[in-house]
Amino acid sequence: MSMDSSTSSVSSPSSGIGTTPGSSDSVLPVFINPYTSINIKTHIPIELDLWLPNYNKWNAFFTAMCGKFGFLGHIDGTITSRPTDPTWNQPDACVRSWMYGSISDGVLDLAMAPDQTARALYTAIRDLFQANQEPRAVILNQEFVSLSQGDLPIEAYASQLKQTADALRDVGHPILDRQLVLNLLNGIKPRLANTADIIANMRPLLTFTEAANMLRLKELCLANDNKVASNTALTASMMAACTSASCRSTSSPASQPRGRGKGKGKGGNGGSGGRRKQQQQQPG
Asked: Which of 53-57, 103-107, 249-253, 264-268 has the highest mean pLDDT?
């Protein structure tokens, strides 16, 4: 009987509330906060990496998530740390686990430290991407001005430009949208030069997104024209091949056998020749 009572005093894990075995006076409710079971990938679909210019994007996702659950104070310093207070310690540990699950091992190895608060980890990550800003800005700026379309479609070329501009902004050297548009036009293929001239002469100048979309539309039109021209040339070559002597129908009059006519002619010529021979043999 005592075993039954002690077993029934423990609730199932799915209820979120547990009790302590023993007397009914020692029941202690346990509350499970909903943010402790969050899948970080559903809120931050990218991974922060040292070799990708995605810090600003990751930071936007991460701060939005912390704000959604009311935890911005754990990373911006507006909440005083209280390591011995469970009401502060549990959310802080949760924010740290979100960072652990959304950054690469390389970033984590450089930013992680023992007994670290969420704010300390967040600050270490920020400083890691903002260190040595001037040397990185020089390298990124050289890459930015030397980018060209090459064999890339407009969409991929514009994406490369935007990523490099974002990386420059991360190190304190933001690129104006106007400058981004001009650099886009400067590196495109010659076949898009007419469209680039139109965009460059527009007042006001198109935004980077509008210019990229206009060039992409022109690229699609040119690709369609090339496809139509190729199909037309193929059809013309097939028609030209069918009009050659090897494709003429065998039922045409020029190809009909002439055995009967020739036989008739031979027979007629043979008959008249025989009569002339007989006339020559008769006496005068």
From this structure: 103-107
Lowest mean pLDDT among 65-69, 70-74, 279-283: 279-283
Q: Could you tell me if 78 and 156 lie in one domain? A: no
Cα within 13 Å of Cα(43), Cβ side: 21
Q: How far does Cα 112 stand from its chain's mean position?
A: 32
Which of 57, 79, 61 lies closest to 70 in space, CA to CA?
79
Q: Are residues 98 and 71 in the same domain?
A: yes
Domain span at 208: 133-226
Average pLDDT score over residue span 37-60: 86
Long-range contacts of 71-76 (CB under 8 A, 24+ apart): 71/35, 71/95, 71/118, 74/117, 74/118, 74/119, 75/118, 75/119, 75/122, 76/119
User: What is the total count of domains within the chain?
Assistant: 3
Percent of the residues in the chain that have a pLDDT greater than 90, as a whole number: 46
Pick from 207, 226, 245: which residue ends a domain? 226
- For 73, the token pair is 């104070």
- CA nearest to 187, candidates 225, 151, 139: 151
In a domain, 269, yes or no: no
User: 3-class DSSP state for residue 9?
Assistant: coil
CA nearest to 129, candidates 102, 110, 105: 110
Could you give phi then psi for residue 111, rounded to 5 degrees?
-100, -20
- The whole-angstrom separation of Cα 172 and Cα 63 is 20
Cα–Cα distance between 7 and 196 in angstroms, integer?
77
pLDDT of 84-93, one tens digit each? 898 899 899 9
> Does residue 280 fall inside a structural domain?
no
- Domain identity same for 116 and 177: no
How does 94-112 read in b/e, with b if 16+ C-beta sit within 10 Å? bbbebbeebbeeebbeebb
Cβ contact 48:125 at 8 Å: yes
pTM of the full predicted structure? Answer: 0.54
